[in-house]
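Worked example 2:
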Amino acid sequence: MSACTTPPGPANVATGQTPPASKPVPAKPATPDTKDGKDAQAPTLTPVIFSALPGWGRDDMRAAWPAFMASCNVLAKRPDWKESCTIARQVNADSDKAIRQFFEAFFVPNQVVAPDGATSGLVTGYYEPLLHGARKRGGPYQTPLYKVPDDLVTVDLSSVYPELKNMRLRGKLVGKKVVPYATRADIERATSVVGKELMWVDDEVEAFFLQVQGSGRVQLTDTQETVRVAYADQNGYPYKSIGRYLVDKGELTMSQASAQGIKAWIAGHPTRKDELFNANPSYVFFKEERLPDPKVGPKGALGVPLTPQRSVAIDSRFVPLGAPLFLATTQANSDIPMQRLVMAQDTGGAIRGPIRVDYFFGFGAEAAENAGRMKQSGQVWVLLPKQAPTR
């Protein structure tokens, strides 16, 4: 979600007081996906006691339990998680006390400490948007959402080099070489996407933000149905923030660079819309999914449905995908504390760094409002099974 890229596996991080693990290799598409040209450095996970977690005793464990059990559907297949996930099935899901005792008995909270010693990082928000569209182009429905083009090549590098686990190369074949795929600026002019229109929507700006969120719903007026459009793939270029672009250009201040602020800027500068969008070369392709239960969230990188306000996206080079996290931050654009147990069930192209969390607000206008304003400082503790080996 949130401009999802290839879902990586569990990070190679250090636990306890041992030195940081060797440098993880960042996933690199056909166009290099590195930040400032530097390799990622592993953080330290420092074990603490549960009473050290701010607000641990006040959180409603029952609200987090369904999300944890969803994670266990995947984690139980791993040796270091099998015991705790098996025992979890016997816990009374209606008892806050029983759930809290379970975590305190079988897990150890580990504070994430960045390589530079920082214990705080950035917490943003995302949501599942609703767009209006049609299966056929016509009237206000002029902006396409594309399926994966036939000429997009994805190479799993670990099949050749096992040490490059979770790294994938994206591009296209020219002769016998894999070269970078088209950028956002070039894709809609490319012949490879002709005929790959999944559906058409009525708002180019909302279509762009749909790609940033990674998935959403489309209310189709011609067939009178609402479907989910889910992340299918992307063109291999790293996500670039258009908010940062506007700040660097002096068009907005950091405090103004929220989703709401960016949309207001676009409304006031319609002739510069393409310039702004093309500052982000990343382009997301979608697939259609049925929406049998509107209450169920979209699937994240872990492969399980996201739970509003209890699922988060993380950088899985550093934080194990699927693990419970305790997040201490503040509510969107506020100083009011928000301290709760969440599950690392998603990744995102913009989510880079050991203490970097994207908080899933869910679906609807309120979720969109909060996600757009969420840009807070926060601390993170990873809850790992007591029998889990040091990584």
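The chain has a mean pLDDT of 87. The longest helix spans residues 61-75.
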